[in-house]
């Protein structure tokens, strides 16, 4: 996904003189050819993430469309105050593009982990969030948000599904278990694990790479009584949206994702996926327990 982002952004810089790119050393080498061709629109401020976002706010005030890029914890968590003030409060917009996701660089330690990034972006006003599940989904969605005029966060990861799914992010049913079946919503690169997890269960699976704005109409059309939410970041990030969308219906919600406990471990991204129960086996255990609790409650005493 990262290389696809570099290639697409390099093309956008050549095609649209409104496009700018602001870096804080991360990926600077990859963008060196673009910086040589467009020195006035490719800016590397060094390891100063807060300044990076502030510069993007200034560029936006001049009418440019800035793309701002770094690791998720540096881009969203470290520079959150500048995102809040220099973009939102000034009523200007930018496209933030992160790498690293929740734990892609787990071997680098806690400084490079960011499971709470989407939750933080969710505190801001009217942002679009894309969490692509495959590198081939990146070019179209990146071009769309750069061509737009709103603020957007694009969350790239080394984790990916086997194949891309296109579309604008509305919920797409990738497995239909019939009317009234429990609905599992898989966001981004957890789709394949979710499908494998429910292969022997009567569960409908829907996919989206755009958790914000959440496809409320699609959710209401697909959801029965039981809804399972699987997100590759902090568990429960979209719970409020799902609950509000179904507030007029009796429903149960199981929210799965990265846990809040600080594991204080290194390991690989695959290790963290397993430790947080986001692999197929872990998801199967959680979903089976959730659906089994309803069956047990229905048994006569």
From TrEMBL:
GO terms for molecular function: magnesium ion binding. InterPro entries: PDH/Transketolase (IPR051157), THDP-binding (IPR029061), Transketo_C/PFOR_II (IPR009014), Transketolase-like_Pyr-bd (IPR005475). Residues 1-164 form the Transketolase-like pyrimidine-binding domain. It comes from the Bacteria. Coiled coil: none annotated. It holds the Pfam family Transket_pyr. This is Transketolase. It comes from Micromonospora costi.
């Amino acid at each position: 996904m990262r290389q696809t982002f570099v290639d697409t952004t390099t093309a956008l810089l050549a095609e649209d003189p409104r496009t700018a790119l602001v870096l804080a050393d991360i990926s600077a080498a990859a963008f060196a050819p673009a910086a040589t061709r467009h020195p006035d629109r490719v800016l590397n401020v060094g390891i100063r993430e807060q300044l990076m976002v502030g510069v993007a706010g200034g560029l936006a005030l001049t009418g440019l469309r800035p793309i701002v890029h770094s690791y998720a914890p540096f881009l969203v968590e470290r520079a959150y105050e500048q995102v809040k003030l220099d973009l939102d409060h000034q009523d200007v917009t930018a496209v933030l593009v992160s790498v690293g996701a929740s734990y892609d660089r787990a071997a680098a330690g806690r400084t490079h982990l960011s499971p709470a990034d989407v939750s933080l972006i969710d505190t801001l006003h009217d942002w679009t969030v894309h969490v692509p599940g495959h590198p081939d989904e990146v070019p179209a969605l990146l071009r769309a948000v750069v061509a737009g005029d709103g603020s957007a966060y694009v969350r790239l990861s080394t984790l990916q599904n086997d194949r891309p799914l296109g579309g604008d992010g509305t919920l797409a049913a990738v497995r239909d278990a019939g009317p009234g079946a429990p609905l599992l919503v898989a966001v981004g690169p957890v789709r394949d694990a979710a499908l494998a997890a429910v292969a022997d269960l009567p569960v409908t699976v829907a996919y989206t790479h755009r958790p914000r704005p959440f496809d409320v109409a699609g959710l209401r059309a697909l959801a029965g009584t039981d809804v399972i939410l699987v997100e590759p970041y902090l568990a429960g990030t979209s719970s409020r949206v799902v609950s509000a969308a179904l507030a007029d219906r009796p429903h149960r919600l199981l929210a799965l994702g990265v846990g809040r406990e600080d594991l204080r471990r290194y390991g690989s991204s695959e290790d963290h996926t397993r430790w947080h129960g986001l692999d197929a086996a872990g998801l199967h255990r959680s979903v089976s327990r959730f659906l089994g609790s309803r069956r047990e409650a229905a048994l006569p005493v």
